[in-house]
Design brief:
single chain, about 190 residues, eight-stranded mixed β-sheet
Length: about 190
């Protein structure tokens, strides 16, 4: 009688088996998790955060890793907010921090420019109509795993919760979040850089 209850409490079943781990703050996720996910991806790296700037401080040798991944055939994409957009301006007022949203986006763009022309690396700005949906949810995909941050109203991304997901079949949480990011990507505009 005890064994089935113990198993049920320890073994994930149904929809929640895609949830690898949850963190009350994005900043509580160890940098080793980010690094391991980036390093282990072979086909798809999709950074659909509004600024994505923290990867260069979170993941050691991030630029070199992106270059190596792209050269080996991995698709690398960055979906960013428009640094000159209205939603970006509004978010800066809400956050009211020294390292502004537009500055964080420009930091990412600067790092991407340093990569030079690589065919498998793409960067786009979300269109104005999608910007509010983009700024409120960050989705970072590493092949069949994802880190997702639903942004809380007045908090900077690192203060919002984070979910670590691993795909287990179709139609689960992994698919729902990554399909949201893909939809934003489908309408997004090239950054020009």
């Amino acid at each position: 009688m005890l064994w089935p209850k113990l198993v049920q409490e320890r073994v994930k079943t149904g929809n929640d088996r895609e949830l690898v781990h949850s963190y009350p703050y994005r900043s509580a996720c160890p940098s080793t998790v980010w690094t391991e996910l980036v390093e282990s991806a072979t086909d798809e790296l999709f950074f659909a955060g509004y600024t994505n700037y923290f990867f260069w401080t979170q993941v050691p040798h991030f630029t070199e890793t992106l270059r190596r991944k792209a050269e080996s055939g991995c698709r690398v994409r960055f979906l960013l907010g428009d640094p000159a957009g209205e939603v970006t301006r509004q978010r800066e007022e809400i956050e009211d921090v020294a390292l502004s949203v537009s500055t964080r986006i420009r930091v990412t763009l600067e790092h991407l420019e340093r990569l030079g022309p690589l065919g498998n690396v793409e960067a786009r700005f979300s269109v104005p109509l999608d910007a509010i949906n983009h700024v409120s949810l960050s989705v970072f995909r590493f092949d069949s795993e994802a880190l997702v941050t639903p942004h809380l109203a007045r908090l900077v991304g690192h203060d919002s919760p984070l979910l670590h997901l691993r795909k287990h079949g179709d139609g689960g949480m992994f698919d729902r979040f990554t399909e949201h990011a893909e939809e934003l990507w489908s309408r997004a505009l090239p950054t020009g850089g």
